[in-house]
Amino acid sequence: MSSNLAETKKTILCRGERFRLYLDRDTIQQRVRALGEAISRDYEGKRPILIGVLNGAFMFLADLMRAIDIDCEVDFLKLSSYGASKISSGVVHELKKIDADLAGRHVLIVEDIVDTGLSMAFIIRKVQEEGPASVRTVTLLHKEEATRDEVPLDYVGFRIPNLFVIGYGLDYGQLGRNLPDLYILDDAA
Ligand code: IMP
Questions:
Q1: Greater confidence, 148 or 33?
Q2: N or C terminus of the chain: which is more exposed, having fewer CB within 10 Å?
């Protein structure tokens, strides 16, 4: 089949570090479709508003929304990133606020990855302050071993080991987001 997307490679270099293929695009899309179907069932008649966390979640959110076949809305917030590091700074800053009025709304927070859980805990607190009807969370990836803050995760795409990943929206120092597949740091390298 012809495609204008880059071909899947087994290993890649990003900023001089080796990453190996972890989840290919078909596996990701299959799981995203299943999450979309579950959300469509659970939110029938509720017109949820999806809150995407920039920058990392933009690709997952775009695919997830297309897998949801009930009325839904979208808005975004942006948090500080890791910068060019692979380790969380432990401090979360809000760089862009949510514009939508969340009072009385069914809110679904959409993250690319939950690592320490600090960002998700921060967002849940922010959203709760707006008086929503309900708050649930979706994350494509969960590094269970790394999660220190207790965060309720309602929909999880994949549970992954505590290693740095890039691709499908996730970056290493802003690079790697455009990869259609997910790659994990090659710990053997
Ligand atoms: P947490 O606050 O430690 O849970 O980290 C959440 C944020 O850190 C995510 O939204 C990502 O932006 C970033 N992050 C965490 N782990 C990774 C990774 O393995 N690759 C790329 N970004 C990551």
A1: 33
A2: N
